[in-house]
Amino acid sequence: MLIKEGKTNIKYILIIVILAAVVGGGTLWCVSKQEVPVTQFPEIKIPKDETADWKIAKPPSVLTLETLPNDIDFNQAKVKGKLTDLGGAYSVDVWFVWDTNYYDDWQDYTYDNAANKETMIQTGEFEYTIESDIRSWHGSLFSATLYHFRVIASNAAGIAFSDDKIFTTLSLPYINF
Fold first, then answer.
1. Are 87 and 59 in contact (CB under 8 A)?
2. Pairwise CA distance, residues 67 & 73, whole Å
3. Which partner from 29, 54, 67, 97 sits 20 to 30 angstroms from 163, CA to CA?
4. Average model confidence (pLDDT) for the chain?
5. Rounded to whole angstroms, how far apart are CA atoms 116 and 94?
6. CA 36 to centroid of chain Cα atoms
């Protein structure tokens, strides 16, 4: 098309030159270098909020708190934990696991309240009351029984668990007829 019967088609050459100038941003006609001063860039503000998602680098940290004697009955116990570090996340899910046996791995504990996780947005204490359910033996507490429990915490970076603690439910009151 550029060469037609031995002659150069000037229309096509002109179109190619114009397209090159448009696509090249006019670099064929004008080459100028202009530096943008740093003061013209928008200021990048790093959030002061230490829980920003982009800073997630580690799982959260939790502690198991001692269960007080007045928090224990024959069929229930109030267990307590403390979230000490969100690990850089906006929020952390916390819950408890418990069993009549001690386990090294928190996933081996038989009972949990994971279905009722508490979502925390700041460090602090939290609690859960483990109660017996007459309709179901699952998760129920028995009187005069030693229980092990732990706190579990989860954020986008991973899962953490606390040390094992224990409590013993009270004996049923003896009734003499």
1. yes
2. 11
3. 54
4. 81
5. 9
6. 40
- In total, how many domains does the chain have? 2
Query: Is 104 within the bounds of a domain?
Result: yes
In angstroms, the first-to-last Cα distance of the chain is 116
Question: How would you write the chain as a 3-class SS string?
Answer: CCEECCEECHHHHHHHHHHHHHHCCCCCCCCCCCCCCHHHCCCCCCCCCCCCHHHCCCCCEEEEECCCHHHECCCEEEEEEEEEECCCCCCEEEEEEEECCCCCCHHHCCEECHHHCEEECCCEEEEEEEECECCECCCCCCCCCEEEEEEEEEECCEEEECCCEEEECCCCCCCCC
Rg (CA), the chain: 34
pLDDT of residue 28: 46
Query: Looking at the domain assignment, is residue 45 inside a domain?
Result: no
Residues 126 and 61 both lie in one domain:
yes
Query: Which tokens in the block code for residue 163?
Result: 């040390």
Q: Is the pLDDT of residue 40 over 50?
A: yes
Query: What pLDDT sits at residue 56?
Result: 53
Order of all β-strands in the sheet with 61-65: 61-65, 76-85, 124-131
Q: Tokens for 95?
A: 């819950």
Is position 177 within any domain?
no
pTM: 0.65
